């Protein structure tokens, strides 16, 4: 069955480069990002894994655990990891699932047979601390993802979870945010006694409350 936003993220047990895990136990009380790679020893994936390893501190800062997946085995992952370090200048610093039986790929609908029968597409799932799916993106194998964009989206998810606001196009941390339509002007006066910038009755901006 397809996974949708708001669904509970399915749990699984898997072999990874850092040992066997139960996904929920591994997440603990944190948020997580789970992302798939079509195959080991492939060029685009190599650059993506290097980029995520370089950004690991940024995920840590936001309290997000990072886990990748590829349909090859742990031995291959280890060999590939050495190549990633050599070519991208950084070693893998997060676990990579060895999904040789495609169990996790199937559970998370990462194989799109009309794109490829056996390899995963480039899926990303952001899962919150209640194990809810909060964001999903899907790219084809030939297009590398932009992990800066994923961090930006995580900043929005965290902000909009904690405050009754939404983030406008191309928003980044510190930019003005939008008061959600469900908040009436009367309620907004209580929440934002300093007022707001109203471009239309439905388009009301306030400063980023975490700025
Ligand atoms: C890659 O990671 O470079 C890749 C993987 C599968 C198909 C095409 C490209």
What would you say about this model in short?
With about 210 residues, this protein is of the alpha+beta class.
Polypeptide structure, described:
The structure is a single chain. By secondary structure, the chain is α+β, with helices and mostly antiparallel strands. 32% of the residues lie in helices and 24% in strands. The protein has a 5-stranded mixed sheet with strand order 5-4-3-6-7, covered by helices on one side. Strands 8-9-11-10 form a 4-stranded antiparallel sheet. It has a two-stranded antiparallel ribbon with strand order 1-2. The protein is elongated and about 60 Å long. It starts with 12 loop residues before the first strand and ends in a 5-residue tail after the last strand. The model has no long low-confidence stretch (mean pLDDT 97). Residues 38-39, 42-45, 141-142 line the site of benzoic acid.
Strand content: 15-25%
Overall 3D form? elongated
Over all CA atoms, what is the radius of gyration? 19 Å
- Summarize the biggest pleated sheet: 5 strands, mixed
Quantity of strands, as a count? 11
- Helix fraction by DSSP (H/I, runs of at least 4): 25-40%
Side by side, the strands of the main sheet go: 5-4-3-6-7
Low-confidence stretches: none
Structural class call reads: alpha+beta
Distance between the termini: 40 Å
Mean pLDDT: 97
The DSSP helix count reads 6
Bound molecules: benzoic acid
Instruction: Return the string of H and E elements.
Output: EEHEHEHEHEEHEEHEE
Helix/strand layout:
Blueprint (H helix, E strand, L loop, with lengths): L12 E4 L2 E4 H5 L3 E7 L5 H19 L2 E7 L3 H15 L7 E3 L4 H5 L14 E6 L5 E7 L7 H16 L2 E2 L10 E3 L5 H7 L5 E4 L2 E4 L5
Parallel strand pairs: 3-4, 4-5
Antiparallel strand pairs: 1-2, 3-6, 6-7, 8-9, 9-11, 10-11
Helix pairs in contact: 2-3
Bound molecules: benzoic acid (BEZ).
